[in-house]
Amino acid sequence: MRILCTNDDGIHARGLELNIEVCAASGDVFVVAPDREQSGSSHSLTLHRPLRGMARGPQRWAVDGTPTDCAMLAVEALLPAPPDVLVSGVNHGPNLGEDVLYSGTVAAAMEAVSLSVPAIAISFAGTDLDLLPTWKAPLQRLVASILASPRLPTPIFLNVNLPPVRGDAVKGVRITTLGSRVYEGSIARMKDPWGRDIFWIGGGHINWKGSGGTTDVQAISDGYVSVTPLQLDLTHHAGLESARALKLEL
């Protein structure tokens, strides 16, 4: 099995090295990852300049672009044949609820699915990266179980979040839905050296919602791995009749 590993924290990230070690137990690993931090890049593509895929060892490339660029270049240009699966991560931080709309980690998986390659996005929902090595064995078992199943269905992909505990202390795995979160105070107003207003997005306080037992937020809070199936189709199918009732069609 050809497994493509990528991320949004950059090719030198500790989470990516864990991803590579985990996937090496299940197949032949290829790595195509950004050459620098690309968190929050969502599904952006680099269109205003050419991209470079720079060799960083056998079957490993660093790309001066976004995670979506990496997935596209890997599948269509760099690998000798399309991968059987893409595994994105392990992200340094959670990708829960609406985070999936901003996440470069999740976007790489989305791009793979759009190219008919099954995908998994994996995130560590904590800040103590020294815990990452403790997740090698349980994550190997989880990834191996997923890959040993019949071909992952596209356009569905799996969004996996690991709770902020040691891997040997995890309680189990839950299949979940997306919760919700609201950022408060996430914009800091500052002054540049000339006294003009500038704004920095980040920080603040996060209020998580979705305390129901089926949400990713609750699963992580309870010490379980969260596995949420996601899809590319954002259509609100139940709302189609309400939209038609507006009589906008001519």
Strand and helix order = EHEEEHEHHEHEEEEEEHEH
End-to-end span in angstroms?
A: 50 Å
Q: Report the mean per-residue pLDDT as an integer.
A: 92
Strand order of the largest sheet: 3-4-2-1-5-6-7-13-8
Can you describe what's shown?
This protein has a single domain, classed as Stationary-phase Survival Protein Sure Homolog, Chain: A, CATH 3.40.1210.10. The protein has 7 helices and 13 strands. The protein has helices at about 15-25, 65-80, 100, 105-115, 135-150, 215-220, 240-245, and strands at about 1-5, 30-35, 55, 60-65, 85-90, 120-125, 155-160, 175, 180-185, 185-190, 195-200, 205-210, 225-230. Strand 10 and strand 11 (about 195-200) form a beta hairpin. The longest helix has 13 residues, at about 135-150. The radius of gyration is 19 Å and the shape is globular. The model has no long low-confidence stretch (mean pLDDT about 90).
SSE layout:
Layout: E1 2-6, H1 14-24, E2 28-34, E3 53-55, E4 60-63, H2 67-78, E5 85-92, H3 99-102, H4 104-114, E6 119-124, H5 136-148, E7 156-162, E8 173-175, E9 180-184, E10 187-191, E11 197-201, E12 205-209, H6 216-221, E13 225-231, H7 240-244
Helix pairs in contact: 1-5, 2-4
